[in-house]
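Hi support team,

I've been running sequence recovery on a batch of backbones for a student project. Most finish fine, but this one hangs at about 90% for roughly twenty minutes before it completes. I'm not sure whether the input is malformed or the queue is just slow. I've pasted the structure tokens below so you can try to reproduce it. Let me know if you need the job ID as well.

Thanks,
M.K.
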């Protein structure tokens, strides 16, 4: 009986000791803080946005304590709808969309806070191989352009005018084909020239369906072609989050700038599982060579003014908007300085 009592007491005190140690252990190791969720809506899935995917694949967002989810919304209007309705926190889309929303009298304007690409991302593709290209060759031809009102179309018309070509008088301009169907329309025989994004342009060239003869990005100069933006209310409520996000993007921009096209292609490959690695490397190299990837997130005033000039030339600028009204560079500047 005494032995049984001693055993019971021993078990009782052992249990207290184990409980105490567990309690001490729990207090000395607090639970890990969960990452803050941020939802991005990107206008399309494109190698043109390589730094965004590098930030994801290399864990730069996670390093900042952010849990970033990415949704492709397929179109500037849909991206803005997601942003304005609260379906996304941050949008990646052309800066012209923020001007359109502001012109409609929005009480909560969409603010551009981090630039990702700084040139147009399209190329002029000819159906026939041309050894000595000149823009004059487009006169009298059928040109399959991009959707009216979007940046690719506006830049396309701007470049044509810069070379003395009236897009509505000197050639047969087709603009009624959906973005997703432009490449297939050209492949089936529509048009002598077409304005295409990568990697389609390089794929066509590899397959002998067309030949890249010029770059609209090189011809049009620097513009805030695609930027990260958020509603003013979101930025005021979440300044630390926006700063962490911008820091991760800047780190990715620097990574892409300092690494080879091949290394970048390998880093973003999970986001393009059906694209040939050789094509991806060619595309990244082409964009790097022409300076399409911004090396820092600052959208400067000269770029903003160039954007509005292009929009005005295309007849798509609803109203002139001051740079400081829709652009916030303070976050990007603080990130770079730090």
């Amino acid at each position: 009986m005494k032995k049984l009592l001693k055993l019971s007491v021993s078990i009782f005190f052992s249990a207290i000791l184990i409980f105490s140690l567990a309690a001490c252990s729990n207090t000395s190791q607090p639970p890990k803080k969960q990452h803050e969720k941020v939802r991005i809506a990107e206008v399309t899935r494109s190698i043109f946005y390589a730094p965004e995917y590098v930030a994801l694949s290399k864990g730069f967002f996670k390093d900042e304590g952010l849990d970033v989810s990415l949704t492709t919304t397929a179109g500037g209007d849909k991206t803005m709808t997601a942003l304005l309705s609260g379906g996304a926190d941050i949008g990646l889309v052309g800066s012209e969309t923020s001007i359109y929303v502001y012109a409609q009298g929005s009480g909560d304007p969409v603010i551009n806070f981090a630039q990702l690409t700084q040139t147009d991302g399209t190329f002029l593709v000819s159906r026939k191989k041309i050894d000595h290209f000149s823009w004059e060759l487009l006169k009298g031809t059928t040109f399959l352009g991009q959707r009216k009102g979007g940046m690719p179309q506006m830049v396309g018309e701007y470049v044509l005018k810069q070379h003395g070509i009236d897009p509505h008088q000197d050639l047969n301009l087709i603009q009624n084909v959906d973005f997703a169907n432009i490449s297939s329309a050209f492949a089936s025989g529509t048009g002598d020239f077409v304005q295409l994004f990568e990697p389609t342009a390089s794929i066509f060239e590899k397959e002998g369906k067309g030949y890249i003869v010029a770059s609209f990005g090189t011809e049009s100069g620097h513009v805030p072609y695609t930027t990260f933006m958020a509603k003013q209310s979101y930025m005021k409520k979440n300044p630390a989050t926006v700063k962490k996000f911008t820091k991760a993007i800047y780190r990715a921009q620097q990574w892409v700038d300092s690494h080879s096209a091949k290394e970048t292609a390998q880093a973003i490959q999970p986001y393009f599982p059906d694209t040939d690695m050789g094509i991806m490397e060619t595309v990244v190299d082409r964009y790097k060579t022409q300076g399409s990837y911004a090396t820092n997130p600052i959208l400067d005033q000269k770029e903003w003014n160039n954007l509005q000039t292009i929009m005005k030339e295309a007849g798509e600028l609803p109203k002139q908007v001051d740079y400081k009204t829709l652009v916030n560079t303070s976050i990007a500047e603080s990130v770079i300085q730090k």
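--
Follow-up from support: It reproduced on our side and the slowdown came from queue contention, not your input. Residues 2-28 form the longest helix (27 residues). No action needed from you.
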